[in-house]
Specification:
Strand content of chain B: 25-35%
Shape of chain B: globular
Oligomer: heterodimer
Largest interface: A-B, 25 and 32 residues
Distance between the termini of chain B: 39 Å
Number of helices of chain A: 10
Helix content of chain B: 25-40%
Strand order of the largest sheet of chain B: 6-7-8-3-9-10
Helix content of chain A: over 70%
Largest sheet of chain A: none
Largest sheet of chain B: 6 strands, mixed
Number of helices of chain B: 7
Number of strands of chain A: 0
Chain lengths: 280, 259
């Protein structure tokens, strides 16, 4: 027992030292980022003011910032972002449901794997924006065509992530669980899915990224207000500041979702499984 | 100790098919294990002793023969015969407490009862304070302790241990030997323990069964009557080890191409 308590004590001082190191490393990262991005913005402003390229082609960060603020103030950008996000969330949710079910079926059934599995891998190679012309022919230039492209963009990454996660479940976990009395749905829900979760999460994240890209591509061709459409309007108006402002907005939305949705889940998984604990 | 036989193997063999070729891992084996007995299966790597353990656990099916455990033929895994693996096989997505509770959750044990049993076993394997730790935060010895608690929490009558201490350092292994021995004498479980370490087998077992190299068969059945608790350094343990080594060596020399 004494050795155990000693070990705990030792462990906690180690933890403290590690967390001190960690916060110092975080500060360094933050400083580097601030310096880098500030320099980048200054350089951009300088190049823009130098007059090498005309203002309407290369506006500086100040002009872009003003465009962004005025767009936000008019409510135009917020409305556009809202429309885009709604489509993204609906399309992704549909992909998620179909993808998880299909991936789980593929992982368990050899016939499906040999047939549908090959189809999925083939279709995964097709950039989802290639579905757009067909979608417009089938559904017309409307909401359904856009959702279709978003789903086609994200579905296959999710299917493949779920399938490979489940297929690569270490047999020893399944053996141990069966031996401890787990079977059927419980074996699935309490062992196979949790064990596959890190791989599934990677598929979900990739699916999300593809959904976002597909959506922006589809919206470029679309005439009602949305983020993609705002980009296109900026081009039509010869307003490079608006184009860049909307690009910034798209980046912000994308990063925000990643940070709010996937980051916390990834951190929890890493904490449990000990990913990244080696410090590499 | 009761002499009722709780495990009977009759003509149990196993043949694997790999790349179109049949490989016999075990020749037909007959074996009886009594209730509360600590039996060590001893043999070189690849002699089929782990396969035999898997068959007893019901995780694999024998090619021929029958296995009867507690009066019923083994047709699949049962929480009454729990297998412990060399790499503890704890679930990395669960903390220690949840790992230990896993088997109980599969039954209809009431929550309070589950919590009590889990806490009790965590204390008995000296993991208090580590209830919320995840697997990667535990040392090898602690992982084996947690796996032991997870298995014993569902109160099986038989523990099947597959070189559980094989990957541990000598000091940790020594301590776990002592802890396993006292858990065994307190709970009176039947233990079938696979190892390739002769001294470990002698120090722990009531009986040591020596396996020949592939295909495995039993070439020696030693009763160890030395007083407990034994240590790996006891002179008597070392003497008995030497005797068993002779049998093991003779078995290996009979099949030199397998070494």
């Amino acid at each position: 027992m004494t050795t155990l308590t000693q070990r705990t004590a030792l462990g906690s001082t180690q933890v403290k030292a590690e967390s001190a190191n960690e916060s110092r490393a975080k500060r360094t990262t933050l400083v580097r980022r601030i310096v880098f991005f500030t320099s980048l913005l200054v350089l951009w402003e300088l190049v823009s003011r130098s007059g090498i390229w005309p203002d309407y082609l290369l506006p500086g960060p100040i002009a872009v910032g003003q465009a962004l603020l005025s767009g936000l103030r008019k409510g135009l950008y917020i409305q556009g972002a809202w429309v885009s996000l709604l489509r993204l969330v609906i399309g992704y949710a549909i992909s998620l449901v179909i993808g998880v079910v299909l991936g789980a079926l593929l992982a368990r059934n050899k016939i499906l794997q040999d047939t549908i599995g090959a189809l999925v891998i083939g279709l995964q190679a097709l950039p989802s924006v290639c579905w757009l012309p067909l979608a417009i022919l089938w559904f017309g230039l409307n909401e359904r065509a856009i959702l279709f492209v978003v789903i086609m963009g994200s579905l296959f990454s999710i299917v493949l992530g779920v399938e490979s996660g489940i297929k690569n479940t270490p047999p020893i976990f399944v053996k141990a669980a069966r031996n401890l009395g787990a079977n059927g749905f419980r074996l699935y829900g309490q062992v196979i899915l949790p064990s596959a979760f890190p791989t599934i999460l990677a598929g979900l994240k990739q699916g999300w990224a593809f959904a976002w890209r597909s959506l922006m591509a589809a919206e470029l061709l679309y005439y009602t207000l949305s983020l993609g459409n705002l980009l296109q309007t900026g081009r039509d108006l010869n307003d490079a500041a608006q184009v860049m402002a909307v690009m910034v907005l798209i980046v912000i939305v994308g990063v925000a979702f990643n940070q709010l949705l996937f980051e916390p889940i990834e951190r929890r998984v890493a904490e449990r499984w000990g990913f990244g604990a080696t410090g590499i | 100790m009761s002499l009722a036989s709780v495990l009977q193997l009759r003509g149990v063999s196993k043949t694997f098919t790999s790349r179109g070729r049949d490989v016999q891992a075990l020749t037909p084996i007959d074996l009886d294990v009594n209730a509360g007995e600590f039996v060590c299966l001893l043999g070189a790597s690849g002699c089929g002793k782990s396969t035999l353990l898997s068959l007893i656990a019901g995780l694999e099916k024998p090619t021929t023969g029958t296995i009867i455990a507690n009066g019923a033929e083994v047709t699949g895994p049962s929480p009454d015969r729990v297998l412990l693996f060399q790499d503890a096989a704890l679930f990395p997505w669960l903390n220690v407490e949840a790992n230990v509770a896993f088997g109980l959750q599969q039954t209809n044990t009431p929550r309070d009862e589950q919590r009590r049993i889990v806490q009790d076993w965590i204390e008995r394997v000296h993991l208090n304070g580590f209830e919320r730790s995840f697997v990667h935060q535990l040392s090898g010895g602690m992982r084996q302790r947690a796996a032991l608690a997870r298995s014993l929490a569902i109160n099986p009558s038989m523990l099947l241990m597959d070189e559980p201490f094989g990957a541990l350092d000598a000091l940790t292994r020594d301590r776990l030997h002592g802890e396993l021995e006292s858990l065994w004498s307190a709970t009176k479980k039947t233990i079938v323990f696979v190892t390739h370490n002769v001294r470990e087998a002698v120090a722990l077992g009531d009986r040591v069964l020596v396996f020949s190299p592939r295909p495995g068969r039993i070439i020696g059945d030693f009763r160890i009557t030395l007083p407990r608790s034994r240590s790996l350094e006891d002179v008597a343990v070392i003497q008995q080890t030497a005797e068993i080594m002779r049998v093991l060596r003779a078995g290996l020399e009979a099949a030199p191409q397998l070494i």
